[in-house]
Amino acid sequence: SQQGEEDPQALSIQEGENATMNCSYKTSINNLQWYRQNSGRGLVHLILIRSNEREKHSGRLRVTLDTSKKSSSLLITASRAADTASYFCATDVNNNDMRFGAGTRLTVKP
Amino acid sequence: GAVVSQHPSRVICKSGTSVKIECRSLDFQATTMFWYRQFPKQSLMLMATSNEGSKATYEQGVEKDKFLINHASLTLSTLTVTSAHPEDSSFYICSARETSGNEKLFFGSGTQLSVL
Q1: Do B91 and A40 make contact, defined as CB atoms within 8 angstroms?
Q2: Are A36 and A48 a contacting pair, CB within 8 Å?
Q3: How far is B82 from chain A (nearest CA, A)?
Q4: pLDDT (tens digit, 9 = 90+) per residue, B81-91?
Q5: Cα(A102)–Cα(A23) distance, rounded to whole angstroms?
Q6: Which helix (H) or strand (E) segment is A85 a member of?
Q7: Which chain B residues are within 8 Å of A91, Cβ to Cβ?
Q8: Which letter does DSSP use for residue B55 in this model?
C-alpha cells in the first residue's frame, strides 16, 4: 500500500523558476528518499535524508524533513526543461519496506 | 552507481499465455529484490519482495500463483505472469538494494506488458 501523499499532483513552470514538491507520510521512518522517473522508465535515486536530519542539499536539489509533521519537501532551483519528469518520495520504514508516494508530475517549459 | 537490468522492456502477448520478466543486478549482489506494478500516471505499488534462496513475500491482494517470483541467484530475480489477461496489462518495475546494505534502491528500466 502507498505510504504517502504528494502535492501538487502536477506542476507546470517556466525554465529558470524553482519547483517545490511536498510529501506527507503516516508512520515513523528511518529515512525518506526522493526519486525521479522519466516517462516509461525506471526510477532514479536523487537524494536521501535520514530521520535525524532536517535539510540536505545536492546540486540544485534541496530536501527538508519535518518528522513532527511527517512531511518533506523537494525544491529544484533554476529548473531546466530536462527536469521534466515525475518525482516520488519514498519512506523507508525498516530497510526492507519502502513505500512510494503518489508522485508529482513536473513539466518545465522552455 | 549500481546497475539493474530488466528485460524485456516491452512485451505484447495473447490472453492465456505466460510472460517472464527478468531483473538482473549487473555489478552487485542483491539478496533482496522488489517487484512493483505501476498504472499510468500513478505511483508504484509493491507486489512482492523477492528473497534469494527462499520464497517471495507477497503484498496483500497479490496472487502468488498468478505472479510467480523466483530468485535463484544473488543477481537474478524473475517475475512470471501466468495465464495473462488484459487486466494484467501494466508497467512492471523491479528494484534492488546492494547486499552491502546501501539504503538506496536501484531500479530496472521497467517492462510494459500488453495483453491482448
Answers
A1: yes
A2: no
A3: 23
A4: 999 999 999 99
A5: 9
A6: strand A85-92
A7: none
A8: P
Nearest to A88 among B43, B60, B108 (CB): B43
A33 touches chain B (CB under 8 A): yes
Partner B contacted by A96 (CB < 8 A): yes
B49 to chain A, minimum CA–CA distance in Å? 8
- For residue B79, give Cα distances in angstroms to A43, B10, B23, B53: 18, 14, 8, 15
pLDDT single digits (tens) A72-84: 999 999 999 999 9
Q: Which DSSP string do the residues of A60-77 spell out, in sequence order?
A: TEEEEEETTTTEEEEEE-
State how far the Cα of A34 lies from the Cα of A56, in Å rounded to an integer.
12
B50–chain A nearest CA distance, Å = 11
Residue B38 φ/ψ, nearest 5 degrees: -135, 125
For residues A34-61, average pLDDT: 95
Question: A18: pLDDT confidence band, cut at 50, 70 and 90?
Answer: very high
Question: Cell for B74?
Answer: 544473488
pLDDT for residue B11: 97
Residues in chain B: 116
pLDDT > 90 in chain B, percent: 73
**Residues whose CB falls within 8 Å of the CB of residue B50, separated by 6 or more in sequence, listed in order:** B32, B33, B34, B35, B56, B69, B70, B71, B77
Partners of residue B49 on adjacent β-strands: B34, B57
Rounded alpha-carbon distances, angstroms, from residue A70 to A31, A67, B43: 11, 5, 19
